[in-house]
Write a structure and sequence with these properties.
about 450 residues; mainly alpha; globular; 4 strands; two-stranded antiparallel ribbon; binds protoporphyrin IX containing FE; two-stranded antiparallel sheet
């Protein structure tokens, strides 16, 4: 009896462990709003097919995307090994304030990586492998492994870019940097695959696809650092992953609401909007809770996690020169999709969007926008008024997210980091520099920008 109980407990624990990726789906799911329901939905509608294309193609059959890191084709395996070999040299607990020392440290890191790339990568073989996938043959390189490779190359590029973590002023002062051919060549294939133009990584490549199926980081930026630093790095990656995972019922509800509206079934439409609202509130509460000390430790995050995900270089080829930013929460599908569904102005311009947001994700957001029915609602119809009121509840959830995020963002960014100039991931180096008080000043422009966005959320 005791043994049986023990066995049951063991099985339950194992199931809980293996189900890491599904934790949020199973909890409070309303009928008809899971990914499986959406796959089974026998319907022809642009908004449904755009989402299913995202899931099947870039998502490798799931959402958030599946990414695996053990099954790269042989010619591409050295890249993962090189990351693993370089990781111990990347992080440091106490960055130096001496520019000359830092310059040498960065130089050494880069030459070491270049030497490994030259030695281990057979560039012709690597190129042929990528060429085969580009021609549409995925047999030897399944999409989940391709997503893992996307993360691998993006993380190698960010490691090469900053060459030490926390990032230091001498690296921030660089505005141009020549990358090893072994990193530029695969990145050009990845850019075409995801239809993006940026030389740097994004939330998908650096955070979401950087987790293995057990939810652990594959390409760490803080190897050998303290528990609080490493747990902050992990919590930050998982926040984006979990948020997208919890967003599935919202995407499904919005798709169903659009279809119900077009069929004139306003009652059903209202039901789905309410489901969307309830799930949006859940996700937002989850984000408020996680985007906070101690889950994401403020002091650790700003120095040891945020900087290396920025970019701050301009490309020779761009005319006029464009400075590339790096990661931003604004690249998460959830916000683009919900804004679009509610008919709220877009946050990114077309060209910004094309830099870092993949083609399939752009299509999903654009399709939600095309079928957004909020502007068609009439003030004379009781049903329409009820629908608008429900949509307004979703808007208000976004507003409170933006109000909370604005305060937290500035609080996080103004934590001290004397080895560098004030910066944000997406916006790079900011005007003033120095002590914490001055830093708060230099984040005024960001506060203004986020306030503007808050005011557009109506
Ligand atoms: C933890 C510290 C964080 C800081 C310091 C921060 C900072 C910023 C900054 C400076 C911007 C404006 C520049 C840009 O476009 O990227 C921004 C935008 C944005 N961030 Fe964050 N962010 C943080 C976390 C998050 C998280 C966890 C999420 C989502 C889960 C998120 C979602 C967004 C969104 C959606 C925008 C676009 C503006 C908007 O829609 O209001 N951020 N963030
Ligand atoms: C890439 O994106 C652009 C702009 O969004 C689009 O016009 C083009 O068709 C896309 N290319 C592919 C191959 O999907």
């Amino acid at each position: 009896m005791i043994l049986t109980l023990f066995a049951v407990v063991v099985v339950l624990v194992l199931v809980a462990f293996v189900r890491y990726h599904f934790q949020d789906d199973s909890k409070s799911r309303s009928p008809g709003i899971g990914l499986e329901d959406l796959k089974a939905l026998n319907i022809k509608h642009d908004v449904h097919s755009a989402f299913m294309t995202l899931v099947n193609d870039e998502g490798a059959g799931s959402w958030p995307p599946r990414a695996t890191h053990d099954g790269f084709p042989p010619a591409l395996r050295p890249y993962r090994q090189i990351y693993a070999a370089m990781a111990p040299f990347l992080a440091t607990a106490n960055p130096s304030l001496d520019d000359e020392y830092n310059r040498i440290r960065c130089q050494e890191f880069r030459s070491r990586m270049q030497a490994l790339l030259t030695e281990k990568v057979d560039i012709q073989a690597a190129r042929s492998t990528l060429e085969i996938v580009q021609s549409g043959n995925w047999d030897a390189f399944p999409r989940d492994a391709y997503n893992g490779f996307y993360s691998c190359i993006a993380c190698l590029r960010h490691a090469y870019r900053w060459a030490t973590n926390p990032v230091v002023k001498v690296a921030q002062d660089e505005k141009k940097l020549c990358f090893p051919f072994e990193l530029d060549m695969p990145w050009s294939y990845l850019q075409r695959r995801f239809n993006i133009t940026s030389p740097c990584g994004n939330v998908m490549s650096n955070a979401i696809c950087n987790l293995d199926p057990q939810g652990q980081i594959v390409y760490p930026i803080n190897e050998g650092m303290s528990d609080v630093v490493r747990s902050t790095e992990l919590a930050w990656c998982r926040l984006f992953y979990d948020m997208e995972s919890m967003a599935i019922p919202i995407y499904c509800a919005m798709i169903q609401a659009i279809i119900a509206f077009e069929r004139g079934d306003k009652n059903l439409c209202l039901t789905y909007i309410n489901t969307g609202f309830i799930n949006l509130r859940r996700v937002m509460q989850f984000v408020y809770e996680k985007m906070n000390d101690p889950n994401i430790a403020r002091a650790a995050w700003v120095r040891h996690v945020s900087g290396i995900h920025s970019w701050g270089l301009t490309l020779e080829t761009d005319d006029p020169p464009v400075e590339y930013g790096g990661l931003s929460g604004s690249q998460a599908l959830l916000f683009m999709a919900v804004d679009a569904f509610l008919g709220i102005n877009r946050y990114h311009s077309d060209s910004e969007l094309k830099m870092d947001v993949s083609g399939n994700m752009r299509d999903v957001a654009a399709t939600f926008r095309r079928y957004s029915f909020r502007k068609q609602l009439s003030e004379k119809s009781e049903y329409d008024i009820a629908i608008e009121n429900s949509l307004k509840r979703m808007v208000n959830q976004l507003r409170s997210f933006r109000a909370v995020h604005k305060v937290r963002a500035v609080r996080y960014l103004s934590a001290p980091a004397p080895e560098r100039l004030p910066m944000t991931a997406a916006l790079s180096v900011l005007p003033s520099q120095g002590e914490e008080k001055l830093a708060v000043e230099s984040y005024k422009s960001i506060d203004g920008m986020l306030t503007k966005r808050l005011n557009e959320t109506v």
